[in-house]
Specification:
Elements: E1 27-35, E2 42-49, E3 52-64, E4 67-75, E5 80-88, E6 93-96, E7 101-102, E8 112-115, E9 129-132, E10 152-153, E11 156-157, E12 159-160, H1 171-174, E13 178-179, H2 184-189, H3 191-197, E14 201-204, E15 208-209, E16 220-224, H4 230-243, E17 247-252, H5 314-322, H6 327-332, E18 340-343, E19 351-352, E20 355-356, H7 358-372, E21 377-380, E22 397-400, H8 401-411, H9 417-421, H10 434-445, H11 450-453, E23 457-459, H12 476-488, E24 492-496, H13 526-540, H14 543-546, E25 548-555, E26 558-565, E27 568-575, E28 581-585, E29 592-595, E30 608-612, E31 615-620, E32 625-632
Parallel strand pairs: 9-14, 9-24, 12-13, 14-17, 17-18, 18-21, 21-22, 22-23, 23-24
Antiparallel strand pairs: 1-4, 2-3, 2-5, 3-4, 5-6, 5-8, 6-7, 10-11, 15-16, 19-20, 25-26, 26-27, 27-32, 28-31, 29-32, 30-31
Helix pairs in contact: 8-10, 12-13
Length: 634
């Protein structure tokens, strides 16, 4: 029989905090629950107030579904209020924070946190994103296609691919100058498809004028690339997405430009030699970059085609984000009215050895964006633990590789990406056990305020990583389980275009940017129906948009994760085992007794036994995953 400690639970959702986003100096009620009859003499809320420890005893307020809820009311006296719980028992004291229960006094790194006057992008926690690499999605206007030889960049010519079905060129073959003709009009024409799939927000990789297919080498931030249809195409796409209740966020690199940007203009391929900083030391844009006395310049990762911007320049800050006609504000305003920004390489932005401006710049950028649109989503690229940016004054979320893609991929047997890239894992075979999957996810989320957890951008694939289903070592059923786990995490899942169609792919960045396989009849395949069903469940179940999260089981090859909001309780069980296993699930810790049906939400049959009123023993075949709703205890 499991320990009563497994039933101890609180979070920052509306079920446990009367106002998850309180005003400064308001009063809130905070709750914690556990099994009725748990051997607890006192429950104490431990707060930090003005730097000093404050203890507030909590008292039973309600008993429901076999769980007793303790409650205390406190005054929120500072902009960041943090707390944890002390459970005083006859033989010891237990300390409970967002990460774990200990019998020693924890530090404050994993305290529960309330942020006062924080304005979350409320729509994000309800959303399912669809990431589109524009050139490879759909060609809606062939008249604007790139023609072979139309222009050159860094000594290489543009290539217009002849057939949509052709395999993308490798970097060595195409230098990211191979174009298929996808454009914004094509995305607009496929809005009915996006509605059919069930996604509610679109994230576009960069669309501003640039020579490459990926367009992180921007030459003009103020105009949409004409090969994507220009500014008017973005206005039309935004209008029609919003008319269909979909949001739109754009991708941008404000860390660096391309060498052909009008501000830099190294090779004079796009602008006359009289423009730009490279050939004109007296130009106003010279201060926008880092130039040495010998004319050398700093680049992102020493890539000579991507010069880094210098934010000691106040004029640069004005043109990028401060002025009313700045880059970031232009596209937030009508007729474009985008709903947020995704910032490329945000982890290194403003960081140049002895010149560290990141902590100064991000709050300024946030304030500027939010003055224009208080509900704009601020999404940043970071592959690691970036919790210092996730305290309400900088980013709303990172691309959640660290707390989603990386642990889930390793759970399925993929090597850790960055060490594998350097050859450090050659000869090493390792599959992340479920204990470590749960540990990495809960450790990451445990450092975040709940209102930030609810903003998370949860992905498995993107334009920067080999598609998971393209790995032949991944069992198809285990891939299905990975997608279910992705949709179960707090925040918004992101579907990378074509994953629902089992799009082709190979290792490397070019290998994850294949053209969308429209010629295939994929809409009735199990893969498409998996994503479509999960999109519908995300829409219909408050547990997946507003609920708490708890790992019920994590041992060896099996993980079980629950999301819950009131009586809406969902449980996912994912196995990477080679054999059938019997998995104990302590549903009683959720106030639940058993699955509502003998089939899960994908109509797969369920088999279980009931050894005690609070536990079921679920039979899980090899590689199998389930997602089911629970019935509640009386």
């Amino acid at each position: 029989m499991h320990s009563w400690l497994q039933s101890v639970y609180s979070d920052g959702t509306a079920r446990f905090v009367s106002d998850p986003v309180p005003r400064l100096f308001s009063r809130v009620k905070i709750r914690i629950r556990m099994y009725a009859g748990a051997p607890v003499r006192h429950v104490v809320l431990r707060l930090l107030q003005n730097g000093a420890e404050h203890l507030e005893e909590m008292f039973p307020a309600e008993t429901k579904h076999g769980l007793v809820y303790y409650e205390a009311e406190v005054r929120v006296n500072q902009r960041r209020m943090q707390y944890h719980f002390n459970l005083i028992c006859p033989d010891r004291i237990y300390y409970y924070n967002q990460r774990e229960i200990t019998t020693f006094m924890p530090d404050q790194s994993y305290d529960f946190v309330l942020l006062t006057d924080y304005v979350p992008p409320e729509w994000v926690r309800h959303a399912v994103f669809y990431q589109i690499f524009p050139d490879r999605f759909y060609n809606g206007d062939p008249s604007n296609d790139v023609r072979s030889g139309e222009y050159s960049q860094d000594g290489h010519s543009a290539i217009g691919m002849e057939n949509w079905e052709d395999v993308p060129l490798t970097y060595q073959q195409g230098r990211c100058l191979d174009f298929y003709g996808g454009d914004l009009e094509g995305i607009r024409q496929q809005i009915p498809y996006l509605r059919e799939l069930g996604v509610t927000a679109v994230y576009l990789n960069p669309i501003f004028t640039a020579p490459s297919v990926h367009k992180y080498d921007c030459v003009d931030y103020f105009h949409v690339d004409p090969h994507f249809g220009g500014d008017a195409a973005l206005a039309a796409l935004s209008r029609d997405l919003h008319a269909n209740d979909m949001k739109l966020i754009l991708d941008i690199s404000i860390n660096h430009t391309g060498i052909s940007h009008r501000w830099f203009n190294r090779d004079c391929l796009w602008f006359p030699a009289s423009q730009g900083a490279y050939r004109n030391p007296a130009s106003p844009e010279r201060s926008y970059y880092f130039f040495g006395a010998d004319g050398s310049y700093r680049c992102w990762w020493d890539v000579k085609t991507l010069p880094v911007l210098n934010y000691t320049s106040q004029a640069l800050r004005d043109v990028i984000y401060r002025s009313e006609d700045s880059v970031l504000k232009k596209w937030l305003k009508p007729p474009y009215s985008i709903d947020g920004w995704r910032f490329d390489v945000a982890d290194v932005f403003g960081r140049q050895d002895d010149l560290q401006l990141s902590e100064e710049l991000w709050p300024e950028i946030r304030q500027s964006i939010r003055r224009e649109n208080p509900q704009a989503y601020i999404l940043a690229e970071d592959w690691g633990d970036c919790s210092e940016h996730l305290m309400g004054d900088q980013w709303d979320a990172p691309m959640n590789y660290y707390g989603c893609a990386r642990p889930i991929r390793q759970f399925l047997g993929q090597p850790e990406r960055f060490m594998a890239q350097r050859g450090l894992l050659d000869g090493t075979s390792f599959r992340l056990p479920a204990e470590d999957l749960a540990g990495q996810i809960t450790t990451y989320l445990g450092r975040l305020p709940q209102v930030i957890r609810d903003n998370q951008f949860n992905l498995l694939d993107s334009h920067d990583i080999t598609r998971l289903h393209s790995d032949p070592s991944i069992h198809p059923e285990e891939y299905r389980g990975a997608v279910i786990l992705q949709f179960m995490l707090p925040g918004a899942p992101s579907v990378y275009y074509g994953d629902e169609a089992s799009i082709d792919g190979l290792p490397g960045n070019e290998g994850c940017r294949y053209p969308m396989p429209w010629s295939r009849n994929f809409r009735q395949t199990p893969r498409f129906l998996l994503y479509q069903t999960l999109c519908r469940l995300k829409r219909d179940h408050p547990a997946l948009s507003a609920g708490g999260m708890k790992f019920l089981y994590a041992e060896g090859p099996v993980a079980a994760l629950a999301r819950f909001y009131g009586d809406d309780v969902l449980v996912a069980v994912v196995s990477t085992a080679e054999e059938e296993l019997t998995v104990p699930l302590p549903l009683g810790v959720l106030g639940a007794r058993a699955p509502l049906s003998d089939h899960d939400l994908f109509d797969a049959p369920l088999q279980w036994q009931v050894p005690d009123p609070r536990t079921i023993l679920l039979t899980v075949p090899a590689h199998k995953s389930y997602l089911f709703r629970c019935g509640m205890m009386d």
